[in-house]
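Entry 14. Two folds queued back to back today. First construct below, sequence then structure tokens.
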Amino acid sequence: MNRRRVLLRGALGLALAAVVFFVVVPRIASYGSVGSRLSTVSTGWAVALAAGAVLDILVTALPWRVLLPQLRWTGALGFTQASTAVTAVVPGGAPLGMAISFGLLRRLRVGAGEAGFAVGLAGLWSQVMILLYPLVGAVLVLGSGRLSGATLAIALASGGAAAAIALVAVAALRSAAVARRLGERFARLRDERLLHLRGRWRALTVATLVNQLSGYLLLELSIRAVGIPVHQLPPSETFLAWSIGRVISTLPLTPAGIGFVELGLIGTLVGFGGGHAHVVAAVLLYRGLIVVPTLVVGFAALFALRRDRGYGSASATSSRGSS
């Protein structure tokens, strides 16, 4: 993607986000009423939200520690935060994020084959789970009678996409012939890494779940912190709203889905019966806690990575210590 195209997409994304925040959202709830809701957040809730934001950052290292145990925790945490931060400001979606992750892993002195396979597996596990969440959420809400036809359709389509991706991945990993059709390099990596995957897929699944569901925990805390009671928006409905927002965030519409994720969350939660000002306040609080800390930590980590090629690499540390 050339620089002019990136700039054009970035400008278009900013324009779309501006329309959402300055035109659409104020029609749902005025920013004055939203500010009033946010001002009611107690000290106790503020501490809980801060702890949730820290946890959400820390657990991003878990899948990479499973796939690349030679990385120190700081290295796994730093490179994934740096990758997420860059992806949040540059349009390109999941493919760009994977390319950035690969480049940063190579900077940490991870071999090309190992880095490529780790990025591919982490991306696969993450994407399949993200696409499955709306279906799980729809099942949880189904008995309440508050599941709209449009939301059910989104959940079914998302679940179908997850199933298709999983089937292709399983076929490629289990069948050498299918792997060769996807490319000679993939077939070679499959043969080299299949044993490694068999020993780690359960741990990778758990690590990916913990990593992603920390985001849902932060949304749930934000919703309760602004005063929305459980009887008005139960966890099953907030989970479904979060899962739809998570799917939207993977689409290359705007960097980090800014504008569209907020609109999807607000629309779903209001549709379930949440008060307009309360919902907008909760969503903006949640998104701020997700995006801002990642930008701060991520760009700080990127600066460290650019200065020190051995940052966070246990193998690099040991080699320097023995020289």
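Second construct, same run, same settings:
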Amino acid sequence: MSISIGIPFYNAEKFLASAIRSVFAQTYQDWELILIDDGSTDRSLEIARSVKDSRVRVFSDGKNKKLASRLNEIVQLAKYDLIGRMDADDLMSPTRFEKQLKILNNSKKYELVSTGVYSVTDDLDLIGVRGSNVSNIEFKDLLFKKVGIVHAAILGKKEWFERNKYDTSLKIAQDYDLWLRTCAKNDLKVCTIAEPLYYYREEGNATVHKILAAYKNERNMIKKYAGNYYIPLTLKSYIKSLIVFGLDKINKIDLLLNKRSTGKIESDTLEIYKKELELIHKTYVPGLIE
């Protein structure tokens, strides 16, 4: 079964080549790669267009439409019935799509499958590991954030994305809105696996500004979906914002950021990560410029 892999990018010249290389390093090779530019002003588009492989298609209209619009466009552009995605500044395990596809093929119950993550620095030093095996997600679990779905690690059926589009009015947390909206109408047929098959560059992404913006957006989601839980969840969100603000004021925000990946890094886990990373670095991509 063929997979359409989509990578939207905006000014990602520092990392885009590595992301593309991790696609070419996949053990499952029946795919197309859709690279869609969101109005980059750096060398990102040049890097994308440098790849000489018939499976790679590059799209650019010179506009900055933001992530939600580009994700909807990827669904429209996809040739195949399965769509996988990743962010332009991340990488993924060479076995990611092979293992996700096996799950979707073995169970007709699911239309989406996500994975655990390796949390890494910009230089790909391993910070932590997180993920969990979840086979059934309830609306309340999402609302109270008892479970999480790694958005960029999703592999799903095209028909699901066609009937469940991203809200293009949202600048952040488009994924959380999508999960809540689809779960509320019993259309979130997703499972997550704990195995870390996605490498998330967390350094620089978990800034105070972004965390506070995320909490503000969280309150918008609560207002929209929480119903009877609106007051306690809103209060909890404001308390979290105050804690972040206070930690930042006393230069202790690292205490919070360091807790985002609490999984213990075992020696065998680190060895697997290093071997996979070495394989990705050695993978040849015809024409690719760094």
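Quick look at the second one. The CA atoms of residues 149 and 216 lie 20 Å apart. The chain has two domains: 3-206+261-282, 208-257.
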